[in-house]
Amino acid sequence: MKYFYPQLHTLHNPSIDLSDGLPGYKHLEVASRVSLVLKGALSAYDAEVVSVDSLGCEAVREIHDDDYVDFLVAISKEIEDDAEYVPPLFRANMKKSPLFFQGGMYSSEIGTPIGKESITAAFNSAQCALEAAKYLCVEQKNAFAFTRPPGHHAGVRRYGGYCFFNNAYLGANHLVQMGKRVAVIDIDYHIGDGSMEFATKDMPYFSLHANVHRNYPYFDAEFTNENEFVTLKEFQTAISGEEYVREVECLINDAVDASFDVVVLSLGFDTLETDYTQDEYIYVKPENFRTLGELFGALEQEVLILLEGGYDSEYLELCSHNFVSGFVQRKGL
Ligand SMILES: [Zn+2]
């Protein structure tokens, strides 16, 4: 197993999250998340850390629409140092409006500000996922990519939820191109509404998440899943850590039934009971992450682990340590 570190992620430093209205609060998607998760992983298993400093521009355009990527690149050039961009309003088609307004075509919320170098960091995070996927494919070994910014809320032509490019499906797409059958399993607290858009027969999506109406991304009340390659499971409010682990086990069993060569795991640490991004309480404790690691470590298939959410700085290192400990122990590493 190797670790993959996006060297340019610190260029992305969102300052304020306006989601709860003015004056906003200090943004939770901070650079220190990656160092804490990496430190925890290294203390559990001393793998080689591959530092990735290039940008996955071409790979991003293989799965995201060109006009969407073009907009992100163009708006970045207009943003001044230390300034951040948030769309002033939201419309389905703003192609006849000035660039400054066009972000309203590609997002539907105000919690994901874009700084001057945010998109550079997002391209680097994408490349980090891609290099980890390439390593897994060539060496047939597991990989953990500390992708930041995260990706599972990014759709084909849509950003939000702190995500710009869908790292999990960038990795999955490469593996499918190499002839692998891939299952994408998502155990972040939140549903990967972006990932759902990419799910196909070759790379189906399986997610266990909080209620989608009472938690981000607050789906429309009429929402129903019509994609047969998307399997959605919701955990109950106030679920215990042990019950939650059993639900994850059921989700993995569903994916195994679908038959695959590789698992791409969207790993969020924001299921931890103290995480700030939950709108409802659940009771997953740091030690439960060890069991989660064991569940994925018990798989015969190689696992490409990608970092998604997780925002409680006090416990991120411990949760990461526990997950990797359980994972490598079961994998026999
Ligand atoms: Zn999340």
Structural class determined from secondary elements: alpha/beta
Question: Widest sheet: strand order?
Answer: 4-1-7-12-11-8-9-10
CATH superfamily membership: Histone deacetylase domain
Measured by DSSP, the beta-strand proportion falls in 5-15%
> If you compute it from the alpha carbons, what radius of gyration comes out, rounded to the nearest whole angstrom?
18 Å
Topology (SSEs and partners):
Layout: E1 2-6, E2 16-17, E3 25-26, H1 32-44, E4 48-52, H2 57-63, H3 66-78, E5 84-85, H4 99-106, E6 114-115, H5 118-139, E7 143-145, H6 167-177, E8 182-186, H7 193-198, E9 205-209, E10 230-234, H8 241-257, E11 262-267, H9 288-297, E12 302-307, H10 316-331
Parallel strand pairs: 1-4, 1-7, 7-12, 8-9, 8-11, 9-10, 11-12
Antiparallel strand pairs: 2-3, 5-6
The structure holds zinc ion (ZN).
The site of zinc ion has 8 residues, from loops.
Brief overview, please?
By secondary structure, the protein is of the alpha/beta class.
Characterization of this structure:
The chain has 333 residues and is an alpha/beta fold. The chain has a single domain (2-331), classed as Histone deacetylase domain (Arginase, Chain A), CATH 3.40.800. It has 10 helices and 12 strands. It has an 8-stranded parallel β-sheet with strand order 4-1-7-12-11-8-9-10, sandwiched between helices. Strands 2-3 form a two-stranded antiparallel sheet. It has a two-stranded antiparallel sheet with strand order 5-6. Helix 9 (288-297) links the parallel strand 11 and strand 12. Helix 5 packs parallel to helix 6. The longest helix has 22 residues, at 118-139. The model has no long low-confidence stretch (mean pLDDT 97). The structure holds zinc ion (ZN). Residues 188-190, 268, 270, 277, 308-309 line the site of zinc ion. Zinc ion binds at residues 188-190, 268, 270, 277, 308-309.
